[in-house]
Amino acid sequence: MSSLIDRLVVGTLPLVPRPVVFRFARRYIAGLTLDDAVRTVRELEAEGAMSTIDVLGEAVTRREQTEATRDEYLRVLDVLSAQRLPANVSVKPTALGLSIDPKLVRENFRAICRKAAESETFLRIDMEDSPFTESTLALALELKEEFPNVGVVVQAYMRRTLRDLDRLVAARMNVRICKGIYVEPRALAYKDRQVVIENFAAIVEKHLSAGCYAGIATHDEACVQRAIATIDRLKLSPDRYEFQMLLGVDPLLRRTILAAGHRLRVYVPYGKDWYKYSVRRLKENPSIAGHTVRSILGIGPAQS
Ligand SMILES: Cc1cc2nc3c(=O)[nH]c(=O)nc-3n(C[C@H](O)[C@H](O)[C@H](O)COP(=O)(O)OP(=O)(O)OC[C@H]3O[C@@H](n4cnc5c(N)ncnc54)[C@H](O)[C@@H]3O)c2cc1C
């Protein structure tokens, strides 16, 4: 019954006033400002975790919006460097103009990559939905030639990913491996959970066996366990890979992975454009919205 209510709550999110959605979504974002993100990075550092900072915003349509995001990333990099924070940055290509103009997105990325290179900070290009898969990989491969500290993301639900990995391995690309969050047609993406887990394991195996660095981004114990088995079999030292998790998701698993001696990085998003990101997170786990509604109505405990 409660899972039905949870799904119902998530299904009606577009009708829910944003301040209420913000209350559901608060756990997934550091806050609205860079100061909030810095505070979160420090808290995670105290736990032994590293961070990657994401300036929220995506699929923008105006050039000025992409420039504002670029400038905010430049500010983030200044602060990371000045305060010597254990963090890098993650950037969504459509926030910098991938859907507007190929020249614009390249100019914006180059400006951020130059600044990241100056402070030896790594820059991860996030992967968005399938209309952007090829252009994102091409962009990452192009930038990697000029800036070694650039990496990209691959999605285990995509049927093409094992093939894409050949190009990425050839470029010695640092790759984040995740399941993938966007709704894709079955012709492009596996729909069966077990098949996605198997593909995730195969991608981890292929990338690590080739001697390339991997960010293993999952909260799925099956994926974590399979990755650790591969790491053990290949006898990899902890500087050859890292686990990655989202802010607000399963802190117990986070602490367990860290306690076992693996490195772990948390995705720390912040900014005023929190809505789309947060709705994706709530759809991923409708019980969060359900728990919050029940706690607001005083009919059950809030999710810890
Ligand atoms: C660091 C990081 C970066 C990512 N970057 C990208 C990207 O660039 N492109 C992209 O498409 N996707 C990205 N993702 C999202 C990813 O593709 C998955 O959608 C997400 O990680 C959930 O998949 P899972 O492997 O955790 O498995 P799931 O089977 O979805 O989840 C496993 C368990 O984790 C918990 N859990 C998962 N999600 C939530 C949630 N939102 N709230 C509460 N509990 C939850 C639940 O207990 C669930 O049973 C990223 C994920 C991480 C961790």
Please report the total strand number as a whole number: 8
Strand order of the biggest β-sheet: 1-2-3-4-5-6-7-8
Order of helices and strands: HHHEHEHEHEHEHEHEHEHH
Q: Estimate the global geometry from the Cα principal axes.
A: globular
Q: Over all CA atoms, what is the radius of gyration?
A: 19 Å
Bound molecules: flavin-adenine dinucleotide
CATH class reads Alpha Beta
Label the structural class. Answer: alpha/beta
The CATH architecture classification is Alpha-Beta Barrel
Mean pLDDT: 93
Measured by DSSP, the beta-strand proportion falls in 5-15%
Instruction: State the helix count.
Output: 12
Amount of helix: 40-55%
Poorly predicted runs:
none
What number of structural domains do the residues give?
1
Structure description:
- The chain is α/β, with parallel strands linked by helices.
- The protein has one domain (30-273): TIM Barrel.
- The chain contains twelve helices and eight strands.
- It has helices spanning 2-11, 18-25, 34-47, 63-82, 102-118, 133-146, 161-170, 193-209, 221-234, 251-259, 275-284, 286-296; strands at 50-55, 87-91, 123-125, 150-155, 174-178, 214-217, 241-246, 264-270.
- Strands 1-2-3-4-5-6-7-8 form an eight-stranded parallel barrel, surrounded by seven helices.
- The longest helix has 20 residues, at 63-82.
- The model has no long low-confidence stretch (mean pLDDT 93).
- Flavin-adenine dinucleotide (FAD) binds at residues 126-127, 153, 155, 178-182, 217-220, 223, 244-246, 249-250, 267, 281, 284-285, 288.
Brief summary of the model shown:
The chain is α/β, with parallel strands linked by helices and 304 residues long. It is 51% helix and 14% strand.
